[in-house]
Structures are given as structure tokens and as C-alpha cells.
Amino acid sequence: MTFACSLMAAACFIGGGLLTKPAAGLSRIVPTVAMFGLFVIGAALLAVAVQSDGEIGSAYLVVVGMETVLALAIGVAIYDEQLTTVRIGAVVLAMSGTAVIAQGSI
Questions:
Q1: pLDDT in tens, 49-61
Q2: Please, are residues 45 and 99 in contact by the beta-carbon 8 Å criterion?
Q3: Short-list 43, 46, 36, CA closest to 5
Q4: Is residue 16 exposed (0-12), middle (13-18) or buried (19+ Cβ within 10 Å)?
Q5: Model pTM?
Q6: Between 71 and 40, whose confidence is greater?
Q7: What is the 3-state secondary structure (H, E, C) of 8-60?
């Protein structure tokens, strides 16, 4: 249950993040409301994951790790961002840091 909630929380956070561009600086009401709604749902799902797991560290690390990879992939797929070796290296570095911290919390 913890992993599923963390996965859904990451998806909500990414969805909310993707809506920041269409929200145009919070000037467009529908994407702005949807963005905030997804952030709230993501936070609630993360709270459920923390309650199930008992530790915020491990639940949040799963969310951060998935969010990092998915944000890059969706940015490339939807917004035509370039997939460069620097960006891939940054994701690998972030995931490595997440894995090291996760080892300490297990």
C-alpha cells in the first residue's frame, strides 16, 4: 500500500508540475485549480503512505525518485525538452543520492 500511495503521489505532483506551464503564472483559472488540486491530492497520498510506513523519509524518497525520472521523461515527451547527457547525468546523480539516503533509512 505504501508503494502504491507513493507512486500515485508522485504522479499527482508531476501532473501538478506539468500544469504550471498551462496555468501561465496562475492567470488561467482551470489549469491553476487543477494544479493546486493535484498538489493537495499528492500531499494527502503521501500522508497516507507515511502513516502506513511510519517514516516520512522512506515514503518521500520513493516519491522524489519517481518524480525525478518521470518529470524528465514527460518534459521530453510533452514539452519537447532536449534529452541531453547533462540532464541524464543529473537524474542519475539525484537517483544515486536518493538510493544512498534510502539505504540509511531501511
A1: 888 767 777 777 7
A2: no
A3: 46
A4: buried
A5: 0.77
A6: 40
A7: HHHHHHHHHHHCHHHHCCCCCHHHHHHHHHHHHHHHHHHHHHHHHHCCHHHHH
